[in-house]
């Protein structure tokens, strides 16, 4: 990634994979979200990755956010089948990249809270400490590290302890690098309340942490959050700007890809080196990011 970043100055990530899969007719029910389609419709995942590459993305993040061996075995698969599906997430992204003709593939490492499916990926209110989180992540981490991905994307991390646990696992796999991206509650703190600057500083000193930043966070917080990151390239891929209403279980607000692309230019000026989209962002958002940055 370093060489590509040095060549281009800024790299464009993909958008909301689950959003694209739903727009293409995918059924993401049942607690596994996009990981469900690793078994049920892998071709749809490959198509969604290809759509984002075609829109201008330089990097695709694999569909492993909610994938884990316990999650798959709880739904009747054998451990061997579960491990194969986790590896498949990277293979599908690689196939899409090759069909497109270039790009990078990041193995998606979602937080422990995503597997719990109880909203704790947005609070960091966990029942595991740092040691327990390292143990929980370890098997999937090593599977993804050996999958052929170009790097690891640790994303939507709500907990300082979880970030430390993932850094420990990165030390166990010296052949691969990673970015670490936090979910944040405001313009200063990650979801568990720890200041982002406090989380980012030790990660910036890690020799194989390629970038530190923020995702699955409202765009309005991005400029302030970028100011909390130093010593390492910054990665940002916020939500569309719509707000989720838990009472009505609906998104409120308007999706405006053009405004999102214009904001990406401001994020770049504020120091972001990797820019994309998270929930509710589409290939059109990525196309607009590419157009505004170019």
UniProtKB/TrEMBL annotation:
A Pfam family that the UniProt record links to this protein: S-methyl_trans
Cofactor details (free text): Binds 1 zinc ion per subunit.
InterPro entries: BHMT-like, HCY_dom, HCY_dom_sf, Hcy_S-methyltransferase
Binding site for Zn(2+): 216, 278-279
GO BP: methionine biosynthetic process; methylation; S-methylmethionine cycle
PANTHER family according to UniProt: HOMOCYSTEINE S-METHYLTRANSFERASE-LIKE ISOFORM 1, ZGC:172121
Cofactor(s) required, per the database record: Zn(2+)
Keywords: Metal-binding, Methyltransferase, Transferase, Zinc
UniProt-listed SUPFAM superfamilies: Homocysteine S-methyltransferase
GO terms, molecular function: S-adenosylmethionine-homocysteine S-methyltransferase activity; zinc ion binding
Matching Gene3D superfamilies: Homocysteine-binding-like domain
Protein name: S-methylmethionine:homocysteine methyltransferase
Organism of derivation: Streptomonospora nanhaiensis
Record domain Hcy-binding: where: 1-293
């Amino acid at each position: 990634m370093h060489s590509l970043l040095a060549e281009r100055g800024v790299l464009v990530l993909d958008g909301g994979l689950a959003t694209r899969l739903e727009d293409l007719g995918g059924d993401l029910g049942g607690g596994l979200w996009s990981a469900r389609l690793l078994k049920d419709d892998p071709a749809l995942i490959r198509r969604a990755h290809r759509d984002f590459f075609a829109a201008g993305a330089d990097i695709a993040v694999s569909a492993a956010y909610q994938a884990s061996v316990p999650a798959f075995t709880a739904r009747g698969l054998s451990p061997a089948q579960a491990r194969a599906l986790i590896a498949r997430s990277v293979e599908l992204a690689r196939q899409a990249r090759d069909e497109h003709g270039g790009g990078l593939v990041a193995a998606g490492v979602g937080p422990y809270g995503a597997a719990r499916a109880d909203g704790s990926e947005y609070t960091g209110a966990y029942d595991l400490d740092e040691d327990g989180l390292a143990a929980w992540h370890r098997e999937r981490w090593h599977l993804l590290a050996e999958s052929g991905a170009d790097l690891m994307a640790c994303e939507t991390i709500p907990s300082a302890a979880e970030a430390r646990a993932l850094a420990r696992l990165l030390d166990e796999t010296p052949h691969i690098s990673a970015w670490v991206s936090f979910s944040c509650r405001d313009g200063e703190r990650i979801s568990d309340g720890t200041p982002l600057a406090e989380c980012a500083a030790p990660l910036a000193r890690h020799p194989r942490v390629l970038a530190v930043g923020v995702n699955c966070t409202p765009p309005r917080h991005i400029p302030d959050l970028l100011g909390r990151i130093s010593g390492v390239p910054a990665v940002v891929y916020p939500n569309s700007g719509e707000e989720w209403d838990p009472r009505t279980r609906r998104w409120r607000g308007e999706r405006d890809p053009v405004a999102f692309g214009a904001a990406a230019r401001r994020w770049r000026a504020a120091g972001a080196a990797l820019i994309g989209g998270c929930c509710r962002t589409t290939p059109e958002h990525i196309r607009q990011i590419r157009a505004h940055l170019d």
